Amino acid sequence: MRTKRLRQREFGFVNWGGKRRGAGRKPKDERAGVSHRRRAKLDAHHPVLVTLRVAARLPSLRCAAAHEVVRGAIAESSERGDFQVIVHSVQMNHIHLVVEARSSDALARGVNALGARIAKRLNKLWRRCGQVLPDRFHSRALKTPRECRIALIYVLQNARKHGSWRARMPDVYSSGPLFDGWTSGMDNRAQSRRSYIGKPRTWLLTLGWMRHGLIDPKEVPAAAA
Question: What's the pTM?
Fold first, then answer.
């Protein structure tokens, strides 16, 4: 009888552990989430392209009230000494940023604090409760001058890629009006640049990216950055 019980107990553990179909974290929204693999260590000299995606079926972010929420949250987040937003743009259901951070931990703290502020204030604006940014932020370090220029175009001109902005002037739902790297056809004065976005500290975002030319106000970003 004892031998029989031991065999039954051993059989009960046969399927424990290892990879199983359907196991693991499920997407929180209608699309698969960002991987939870450990992020690569960040070099403080490398800016980072960041994307925050809003939950499905929420109102569009491309309106004056929602954009003001994002601007205010960016202003407060950029007061940190180890993290700052350099450029941003707001699309219907996502936000693109180019940021600087002193370390991987500073990046995570800065972006998560920014996301928390945005979510809380958007819920107040929309008079609702619930998740606004349900998944982890996506990030990619920018290591060369060319990568930085491509990322700046991708963020500032993202509305042109989506077909939601066609005017000659920079997208008003972005920090484009404050950006001082447009071609000579634009007024390049930094108009109250420090009002809510940070002043670049890295060589890549101050001088490096300009090696490949200033940005034309109607330049359309590539399909992906």
Answer: 0.80
